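Sanity check

After download, print the first record. It should look like this:
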Amino acid sequence: MRKYNAVFLLAAVWSGYYTAVKLINERMDSFAAGFAVRLIVFVMFTLILLWRGRLKEILLIRGIWKTLLLIGGFGFLLDITAFLGFRFSQSSATGTVLLKTDIFMVSILSVLMRKEKLKGTNWLLIFGLLAGTVMVMGFSPRDLRIEPGNLLFLLSALCISVNALLIQHLQRKGAGNDTIAYYNNLIAMLCFSAAALSGRGTGPDTIHWGWPLAAMLLAGGAGQLLIYLLYYKGLREHPAWVVKALLLLTPVFSLLTDALVFKIVPGVTEAVGTAMIILCAFLLIYSRRERGAVK
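Expected structure tokens:
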């Protein structure tokens, strides 16, 4: 169970990150927010690497720079398609659920491209995790229809899946997590700056500067940096589909945050969905332990 601690912590951090980003996007343009958060990550990451004496290692990208460009490009695309999806979609719950379909996409791609073997019980548990997520998010089948927003969510889920497999590809070639994460963030930051300069973002036209926004941006930057570090650690230690499956615990942590911080009491459906997610996650880990699977 301990070898999954990074993924569990990642789910909790991602939950807090979603909250910070939502608050930031209420106060500034989403593209400008994406640039600002990644600029903070860039500064933090650079200072950490300088302190650790490892900044020179980041420059050693001969033979992998093309894949790094792809990772950064897909990193930007998965965000921008999600942003635009929420702009055009009539239901945020539908968008969140559709984004979680990346678990099916990455599983299928893992089978087709990596020749990984997923048993019937694996698919059943994945379905159970997604079904629990649907219950927690309050998704309504009536909102599931063909529209630009929903198609953008599915495209974002596909970009998330490809991005994860590209990261694992470089990891298996010996590239360090810091190098991959640094360039992922750098390239996404440059793409967000270009998008912000285009003036076609989403959200308020006027930025509400002040200490609250500064604190949210710092929290968002710190959260994004932690996500990079924990996510890449998880992908190095486990198959991408396992990491994605366990990240469906994120809505559970969001529900706990709402209950503890905002005093929002979950309903019966949300409670049942939470129990289903936790049970399926435990069974997934147990089944892999029984098989002696480490990677």
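If your output differs, re-run the checksum step. Summary of this record's structure: The chain is about 75% helix and 0% strand.
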